[in-house]
Amino acid sequence: MKTTNEITQWGTRSVSFWLTLLIAAGIIFVGARFIINPAGGAAGFGIPFSNTADYAYGRIKGIRDMFSGMVLLPLLWLRMRRAVAYVFTSAIVVPAADCLIVLATNGPGDVPHMLIHGGTAVFMVFVSVLLFRHKQ
């Protein structure tokens, strides 16, 4: 894997660039929501807090979510498509695991939250394919 900036046409004219930026911005928003309103973030995730003592964990999750989104921003800025592809593809484990955690916690009846997490994982697989299939 090259870690230097590739000279390429990939960037703001590419659908995969914007779809990656959309996911990065989305997870930054989710993280900010957990920091600002931990109870709302937890409810949106699909596993609400049982008491206000849990808010600290929501804020911890928020910081980690924001980092997950921000790690892609410099790579996008530098148009490092291959690095973006590897980091982005590695991150698919997060929404996939989130879907399984919601399933294990809430059972199979919580379809809306499992669809959010599972759908995000599937969408990320699609974007990863686009990132790796980019033609020079």
Considering the chains and any ligands shown, give keywords for the structure.
globular, 7 helices, 136 residues, mainly alpha
Q: Give unreliable regions as ranges.
A: none
Mean pLDDT: 93
Overall body shape? globular
- Provide the number of structural domains: 1
Largest sheet: none
Total of helices:
7
Q: How many β-strands, per DSSP?
A: 0
Order of helices and strands: HHHHHHH
Q: Return the structural class.
A: mainly alpha
Topology:
Layout: H1 15-36, H2 38-45, H3 55-70, H4 72-77, H5 81-90, H6 93-106, H7 111-133
Helix pairs in contact: 1-2, 1-3, 1-7, 2-3, 5-7, 6-7
Task: Give a short overview.
The protein is mainly alpha-helical and 136 residues long. It has seven helices and no strands.
Structural account:
With 136 residues, the chain is mostly helical. It has one domain. It contains 7 helices and no strands. Helix 5 (81-90) packs antiparallel against helix 7 and helix 6 (93-106) runs antiparallel to helix 7. The longest helix is centred in the C-terminal third of the chain and has 23 residues, at 111-133. The two termini are 16 Å apart.
